[in-house]
């Protein structure tokens, strides 16, 4: 097992990528605290994960609640080896039709919340710990309608590099996993019915060189790698897990003859 006796905190651990990562971490021997806003969903996830999981209701935009959650995780498990700052929301912010509060909520959750989650964890992170932040291909793709989301995720990349500098003296690594389109509830209506899901899969497949949508497990195994000693000398990097969508877009099926 690759995470025997390790302790982890995963924000947004009740669904999608966070939950898949929590499952993987527990299977690899870790004790895992998961956060989210919806207590029922969180409890259900923790029950499924079993006795090595701890559910902590905390809104990532509430700094005091985040500090309290990290402190409770440390109280239960001892110092933390791994932080996966994963909680995030989408939110359309098209130019010409966006209210400031919608824009700010995306930034507050995906960027400010990530910084203060890391800050709250600093007190409780062991020397040599691994921090992984969740980015997105949207930080580089220019998808119409997503200014706030793209800016938040580009901010995560920039922030990771600064944090890597600041935390290297403690041997703490800070890296970013940047997923392409992954099959999770974040896509809402696009995945709400079998027909919608089929159409969405086809759209993503057409623009992805490897020809298919990503699954939460693809991200979980990458986060496991970044969290583990296998990544011991990887610092300040962003790893795109997107089937080639950002590195080689010209290889996507839509451009093939
Ligand atoms: P899901 O909607 O499946 O999961 C989001 C998780 O975050 C839930 O557990 C949710 O719980 C939690 N969450 C949301 N807002 C907050 C908050 N303010 N405080 C605490 N927890 C919160 O989405 P994904 O798994 O897809 O997304 C996870 C991350 O991956 C996000 O950062 C997203 O931007 C990123 N990502 C996803 C991609 C995809 O295609 N799926 C692509 C690229 C990046 P609750 O609602 O109960 O709070």
Question: How is the topology of this model organized?
Answer:
Blueprint: E1 7-10, H1 16-27, E2 31-36, H2 39-49, E3 53-57, H3 63-77, E4 80-85, H4 100-122, E5 125-134, H5 138-141, H6 147-167, E6 173-179, H7 194-206, H8 216-227, E7 238-241
Parallel strand pairs: 1-2, 1-4, 2-3, 4-5, 5-6, 6-7
Helix pairs in contact: 1-8, 3-4, 4-6
Bound molecules: NADPH dihydro-nicotinamide-adenine-dinucleotide phosphate.
Average pLDDT across residues?
Answer: 98
Sheet with the most strands, sense and barrel status: 7 strands, parallel
Rg, Å, rounded: 18 Å
What is the percentage of strand-forming residues?
A: 15-25%
Q: Find the structural class using helix and strand composition.
A: alpha/beta
What topology, given as strand order, has the largest sheet? Answer: 3-2-1-4-5-6-7
Number of strands: 7
End-to-end Cα distance: 45 Å
Helix content: 40-55%
Helix count equals 8
**Unreliable runs, pLDDT <50, ≥5 residues?**
none
**H/E element order:** EHEHEHEHEHHEHHE
Describe the model.
By secondary structure, the chain is of the alpha/beta class. Helices cover 43% and strands 16% of the residues. The protein is built from eight helices and seven strands; from the N terminus they run βαβαβαβαβααβααβ. Strands 3-2-1-4-5-6-7 form a seven-stranded parallel β-sheet, sandwiched between helices. Helix 2 links the parallel strand 2 and strand 3. Helix 1 packs across helix 8 and helix 4 runs parallel beside helix 6. The protein is globular and about 55 Å long. Bound molecules: NADPH dihydro-nicotinamide-adenine-dinucleotide phosphate.
């Amino acid at each position: 097992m690759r995470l025997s006796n390790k302790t982890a905190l995963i924000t947004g651990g009740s669904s999608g990528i966070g939950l898949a990562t929590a499952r993987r971490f527990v299977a690899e021997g870790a004790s895992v605290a998961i956060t989210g806003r919806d207590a029922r969903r969180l409890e259900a996830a923790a029950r499924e994960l079993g006795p090595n999981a701890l559910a902590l209701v905390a809104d990532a935009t509430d700094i005091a609640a985040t500090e309290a959650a990290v402190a409770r995780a440390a109280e239960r498990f001892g110092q933390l080896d791994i932080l996966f700052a994963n909680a995030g929301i989408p939110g359309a912010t098209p130019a010409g039709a966006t209210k400031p509060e919608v824009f700010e909520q995306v930034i507050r959750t995906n960027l400010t919340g990530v910084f203060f989650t890391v800050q709250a964890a600093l007190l409780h992170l062991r020397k040599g710990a691994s921090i992984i932040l969740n980015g997105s291909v949207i930080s580089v793709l220019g998808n119409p309608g997503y200014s706030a989301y793209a800016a938040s995720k580009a901010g995560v990349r920039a922030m990771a590099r600064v944090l890597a500098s600041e935390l290297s003296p403690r041997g703490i690594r800070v890296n970013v996993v940047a997923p392409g389109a992954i099959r999770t509830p974040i896509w809402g209506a696009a995945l709400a019915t079998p027909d919608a899901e089929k159409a969405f899969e086809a759209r993503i497949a057409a623009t992805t060189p490897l020809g298919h949508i990503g699954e939460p497990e693809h991200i979980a195994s990458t986060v496991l790698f970044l969290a583990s000693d296998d990544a011991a000398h990887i610092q300040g990097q962003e790893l795109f897990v997107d089937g080639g969508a950002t590195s080689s877009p010209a290889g996507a099926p839509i451009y093939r003859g």
